[in-house]
Specification:
Blueprint: H1 3-31, H2 39-68, H3 74-101
Helix pairs in contact: 1-3, 2-3
């Protein structure tokens, strides 16, 4: 197994784990949405919902591109996909922490 294949496998596994965490955070936040009292937090939550909707569509486009484009683009696109997913989960986790503080 060469280094590129190993990195691709690791990135794919991390992406699956982070996607599962995103699903869990999304479910938690939707169930506890009524507990968001502050107006700024509600605006942040609504903004995050819009970003997540757009991101879900973009994720499917990137995944389709991974199958269409030559193999040397796979590692780059997978890395960008993982980075964006990580940033989204981080934002969702921040909102969850604010909900849990109240």
């Amino acid at each position: 197994m060469d280094l590129s294949t190993l990195l691709t496998t690791i990135i794919t596994l991390i992406f699956i784990i982070i996607s599962f965490q995103e699903f869990r955070l999304n479910r938690f936040l939707r169930l506890h949405q009524q507990e968001i009292a502050a107006a700024d937090q509600m605006l942040q939550w609504q903004r995050l919902l819009r970003i997540e909707s757009i991101w879900n569509l973009a994720t499917w486009v990137i995944i389709i591109l991974l199958f269409i484009l030559p193999d040397h683009y796979f590692l780059l696109l997978a890395s960008l996909l993982l980075l964006a997913e990580t940033l989204l989960v981080h934002q969702m986790d921040r909102i969850k922490s604010k909900i849990n503080q109240h």
